[in-house]
């Protein structure tokens, strides 16, 4: 599917904020894709964090990040963002953006092996 490039990861103290970005390759659009963010700790399964469907912009969040994280999309720039506030040490992980052509968030989560994926960006939250 569409190539994706991530940026914005880094180190932050607990309670701090970071903003991740995920941009599609030049000449490509994300307007007809579900988009989202997953995270993974070494040795564990990749976990869904946030997503937005391609119809109506409906958003979904994992319970662990509700009220703290916000996903947004700028289809004119073919870019997806994840604003992360009040970060906790348990948020430490490699974060991956994802996109799925003409799909909803449910499909993007259930059949994640068929998604387009970014290269991953490391977020480290210290206590």
In N-to-C order, the SSE pattern is EEEEEEEEEHEE
* Secondary structure: helix percent: under 10%
Q: What distance lies between the first and last C-alpha atoms, to the nearest angstrom?
A: 38 Å
The biggest beta sheet reads: 7 strands, mixed
Figure out the total of helices.
1
In terms of DSSP E residues, the strand content is over 45%
Q: State the secondary-structure class.
A: mainly beta
Low-confidence stretches: none
Number of strands: 11
Radius of gyration: 13 Å
Dominant shape = globular
Q: Indicate the mean pLDDT.
A: 94
Task: Please describe what this structure looks like.
- Helices cover 5% and strands 48% of the residues.
- It has 127 residues and is mostly beta strands.
- Strand 5 (47-52) and strand 6 form a beta hairpin.
Which structural traits does this protein have?
about 130 residues, 7-stranded mixed sheet, 4-stranded antiparallel sheet, about 5% helix
Explain briefly what this protein structure is:
This protein is mostly beta strands. It is 5% helix and 48% strand. The termini are far apart.
List the helices and strands and how they pair.
Elements: E1 4-7, E2 10-13, E3 18-24, E4 33-40, E5 47-52, E6 59-61, E7 69-74, E8 79-84, E9 93-101, H1 105-110, E10 116-117, E11 121-126
Parallel strand pairs: 2-11
Antiparallel strand pairs: 1-3, 3-8, 4-5, 4-9, 5-6, 7-8, 9-10, 9-11
């Amino acid at each position: 599917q569409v190539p994706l490039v991530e940026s914005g990861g880094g180190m932050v103290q607990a309670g701090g904020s970071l903003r991740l970005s995920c941009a599609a390759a030049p000449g490509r659009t994300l307007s007809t894709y579900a988009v989202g963010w997953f995270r993974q700790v070494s040795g564990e399964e990749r976990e869904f964090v946030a997503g937005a469907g391609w119809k109506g912009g409906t958003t979904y969040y994992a319970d662990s990040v509700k009220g703290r994280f916000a996903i947004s999309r700028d289809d004119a720039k073919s870019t997806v963002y994840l604003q992360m506030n009040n970060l906790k040490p348990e948020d430490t992980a490699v974060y991956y953006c994802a996109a799925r052509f003409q799909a909803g968030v449910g499909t993007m989560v259930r059949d994640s092996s068929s998604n387009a994926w970014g290269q991953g960006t490391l977020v480290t939250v210290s206590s």
